[in-house]
Amino acid sequence: MYVHLGGNVVVPDKEIIGIFDMNIVTTSSATIQFLRVAEEEGFVVRISDEKPKSFIITERDKRSIIYLSPISAFTLIRRTQKIEE
């Protein structure tokens, strides 16, 4: 099944490694550094120009892709849970 991450971005649920709330995890300097390095190395995809509410780590063909989504982590997690049902 697929999960809509916002905008025109849809990913297979099997590619999702983790969904994280930006307000919670960006209080950690390690997470901020991780996202900064990932963006510098080209692993980050901004789904929209809106302020991201969550980020989603995925893996496709042994390559990590991090999506910055305007949709809350709670909503995205609920979407993945509906798929499992």
SSE layout and pairing:
Blueprint: E1 2-6, E2 9-12, E3 16-21, H1 22-25, H2 29-40, E4 44-46, E5 54-60, E6 63-69, H3 73-84
Parallel strand pairs: 4-6
Antiparallel strand pairs: 1-2, 3-5, 5-6
Question: Any overview of this molecule?
Answer:
- The chain is of the alpha+beta class and 85 residues long.
- It has one domain (2-84).
- Helix content is 33%, strand content 38%.
- The protein has three helices and six strands; from the N terminus they run E-E-E-H-H-E-E-E-H.
- Strand 1 (2-6) and strand 2 (9-12) form a beta hairpin.
- 18% of the residues are buried.
Q: What is the CA-atom radius of gyration, in angstroms?
A: 12 Å
Between the first and last Cα atoms, what is the distance in angstroms? 11 Å
Spatial order of the strands forming the largest sheet: 3-5-6-4
What kind of sheet is the major sheet?
4 strands, mixed
Contiguous low-pLDDT stretches (5 residues minimum) are none
Strand residue percentage: 35-45%
Question: Roughly what percent helix?
Answer: 25-40%
